[in-house]
Each structure stands twice: as C-alpha cells, then as structure tokens.
Amino acid sequence: MSTSAMRVPDPGWTDPECPVARTLDLVGDRWSLLVIRDAMDGARSFTEFQRRTGIARNILADRLRRLIAQGLLAQHTAPSGRRQEYVLTDAGRDLFPVILTLRQWGERHAFAPGETHSVLVDRHGIPVPEVTPTGADGTPLDTGTTLVRKTR
Fold it and tell me: Which residues does 149 contact at the CB level (< 8 Å), separation at least 6?
C-alpha cells in the first residue's frame, strides 16, 4: 500500500487541492529538509544529524518524530544493537530530485561567482548534470510551457 493510500486527509492542509502546498506542509521547514539531505548523505544516528546540522536537540527530536510519522524516515535498531538509527523510506528517497533541484538552484543563485561550495558528484566523481524538466516529447519545460489543471 502506498503512503498516499494510507494518509488520512488533514483538515489543516494549507491548500488541500495543491500538491506543492501539501508537500510543504509535510517537509517545508528547513530542518526537515536538512535532515532528509543528511540521511541521503549517509547520516543515521541522532548524534550525526545534530553534528551535521547544528540543530538543537529538542527540535531535532521533534523533526525526526514528524518525519517518521509522515513515512519519510523509519527507525531501526542499529546493527550494534546499542542505539537507534534512522533510514530513509521509499517516500523519503523519492525526495532526492527535490533536494537535487534545490541544490542546483542554490548553486546558481545563493553563492557569489567563484564562491566555494560543495558539489554533488556521481559514483564516478563526476559532477551531477543540471536537471531540466522535459515534456513527453523531450522539449524543456518551464513556467511558460506548463499550466495547472484542476482535477475532479
């Protein structure tokens, strides 16, 4: 059963019919996305998440609980059996293109020319190419070539 099939409608959705708004309701604060980012980069323990993000313990505990409740992280006993670890679920891994697109936007707009920043590379050490959404025919898509159609 998919996560969406299990999700009960929330009367508190910011904009109940908009997928962007619902996604932001679930993961739209910076700490949640940074925890997801770090989980994608191999963080598993509470201590690792705290060290990488600098987040306060109480806020981190809250975000981890929420991400588990929302089906984006799962909590398991570590192989040592002495602590808990957090791993991405399928839904959490599905956020990879979102994190990638945010990263690439940040590379273009959040740094001065020549300013040092981290780079995402593939398993061969080659920088990940720029992501460009395309239509079914391969044509690049942007705000001028798409529109939102309400469904009912």
Answer: none
The residue segments making up the domain with residue 74 are 3-94
The predicted-structure confidence for 88-113, as pLDDT tens digits, reads as follows 999 999 999 999 999 999 999 999 99
Give the CB-side neighbour count of residue 101, counting CA atoms within 13 A.
8
Closest CA to 88 of 76, 73, 78: 73
For strands 84-88 and 73-77, give the pairing.
antiparallel
Confidence (pTM): 0.85
Task: Over range 12-35, report the average pLDDT.
Answer: 90
For residue 88, give the H/E element and its range: strand 84-88
**In this structure, what CATH number is given to the domain that contains residue 20?**
1.10.10.10
- Dihedral over alpha carbons 55, 56, 61, 67 (to 10 degrees): -30
